[in-house]
Amino acid sequence: MLVVSIGGSPSTRSRSGVLLEQSRQWLQDRGVEVVTFQVREFPAEDLLHARFDSPQVQHFQQLVAQADGLIVATPVYKASFSGALKTLLDLLPERALEHKVVLPIATGGSIAHMLAVDYALKPVLSTLKAQETLQGIFADDSQVAYADASQPARLTEPLQARLLDSLQTFHAALARRPRPLAPGVLEERLISARWSI
Fold it and tell me: For domain 2-192, which architecture applies?
């Protein structure tokens, strides 16, 4: 099983990044391969000039094509998800999320931004033909606390419980996906099948 996680924050110190990292660890503990991309790691020229021929963009596209599911995490700015994330998603082919399960995660200054997931991010994921977009998680800034630079961020207990519940739902949805047959298996089954007329 392969999951691509996408961090939409331009900042290295990011609450949405904390949730993304905890999700990665949880999935890897259960044997899921997780590859993480951060928008800030892409050359700005590739994103701003939509360089589909960029090796880094092509690598991203290839892994998304191979993935069973995606986790997309973003801060909320001006009642929407990050512009850098939108630019990266725009570099994906039209049906890039077909047959994939997607878990959206967003963080914002207050619960007033909660609907940004439903009204801004989910429509974009739907346009990319995501097979199943889960309800997702929204956390306001008070639910992700930084102690100091040497300590990892802490989630409040209610947020930790919601994240765990969402990850379990995501993992179960990944497990339900039909597995493609290995090359030659279908042909072998057809040849060895008993046919009657």
Answer: 3-Layer(aba) Sandwich (3.40)
